[in-house]
Amino acid sequence: MNIDINKLLRENIRNLKPYSSARDEFSGDAAVFLDANENPFNAPWNRYPDPHQRVLKTKVGEIKNIPVQKIFLGNGSDEPIDLLFRAFCEPGKDNVVSINPTYGMYRVAADTNNIAVNLVSLNANFELDTVAVLAAVTPDTKLIFLCSPNNPTGNALDKSGMLQIINNFQGLVVVDEAYIDFCPEKSLLPDVDKYPNLVILQTFSKAWGMAGLRLGMAFASEHIIEVLSRIKYPYNLNIMTQQKGLELLADDHLKSEWVETILKEREKMVSNLVKYPFVVKVFPTDANFVLVQMHDPRGIYNYLVEEKIIVRDRSAIALCEGCLRISVGSPEENASLMEAFDQLI
Ligand SMILES: *Cc1c(COP(=O)(O)O)cnc(C)c1O
């Protein structure tokens, strides 16, 4: 499919000349840096970080098996989500299409940028209705947001349905894969090369255990990545995030062990949960959380708070009536949850 990214861009962004930092204009090795008005004392915190995150990006490229030109690194996934709106959606005019229910940040970013969201409901099994998604597109639709595995429902979306949308839409399709490390075979990342309108979001906040560092990724064609890089804050990733991130990425067998443990714990949690009389249904999940429908979800939620256990009440969300969303914790944490539930029967 042919897609003209330049034509999709907002005119002001197309014409934007980015801020050029001292570290852009000279990035080689030198002994004396007197170019950025930094304080010469208090090393290493006195220096601005690499605005292009070269070292960290190279490492991410190795791990994800993708060239650095197709990688954007941001302050969590939230940053590329907001930047996509700012680059492609004209406030007060353009719109985006999103599935419902899904992750709340797309709506917040849309509202912040004064962009309408056309919601398309998933079906009762939380599956994608590709025909309805494409039917919700108008001439002003610039982005379609899909989330797979989806939050808060937990299920991965059907690959062929997503590809059908990507193939039949003249704007960008953003597929948020925040939970993909828990079901890597369902990733669309290998398809980024084939589809110039596909943007994949991933994060180090979940399987990699770095939510506090704020490190998110976007993968897309070189042209889209260049645009996001042009409009980001020059120093969007601080020194600590870049250094600590690199250090943690060096050891990726830790992440594999965590994922393995979490998946085992998830299966245990699911088989325990279905035994409780107050549990109506445990929905199938591809992520590190389960959506559980209960009799009296609010009562259960409040009881757990008293027991000092916090879960997420999703019972007011469309299609999630009666549901709590429970993250899979450590074996000890999950045991505490089950002990608390045991006291209810
Ligand atoms: C947790 C989550 C993220 C991660 O956001 P970060 O800003 O990278 O921490 C992104 N998308 C979804 C759907 C999530 O649930």
General description of the model:
It is a single chain. By secondary structure, this protein is an alpha/beta fold. The protein has 2 domains: 5-250, Type I PLP-dependent aspartate aminotransferase-like (Major domain) (Aspartate Aminotransferase, domain 2, 3-Layer(aba) Sandwich), CATH 3.40.640.10; 253-342, Aspartate Aminotransferase, domain 1. It is 35% helix and 16% strand. It has helices spanning 5-8, 11-14, 22-25, 54-64, 78-88, 105-112, 130-135, 159-167, 222-231, 239-249, 252-273, 297-306, 331-342, and strands at 71-74, 95-100, 116-121, 141-147, 172-176, 198-203, 216-219, 279-282, 289-294, 312-313, 323-327. Helix 4 packs parallel to helix 10 and helix 5 packs parallel to helix 6 (105-112). The longest helix has 22 residues, at 252-273. It is globular.
Report the span from N to C terminus: 58 Å
Major beta sheet, strand line-up: 1-7-6-5-4-2-3
CATH homologous superfamily heading of the largest domain: Type I PLP-dependent aspartate aminotransferase-like (Major domain)
Report the radius of gyration as a whole number of Å. Answer: 22 Å
Give the mean pLDDT: 96
Hetero groups in this structure are: pyridoxal-5'-phosphate
What share of the residues does DSSP label as strand, in percent?
15-25%
Q: Assign the structural class, choosing from mainly alpha, mainly beta, alpha/beta, alpha+beta, or little secondary structure.
A: alpha/beta
Order of helices and strands: HHHHEHEHEHEHEEEHHHEEHEEH
Enumerate how many helices there are, as a single number: 13
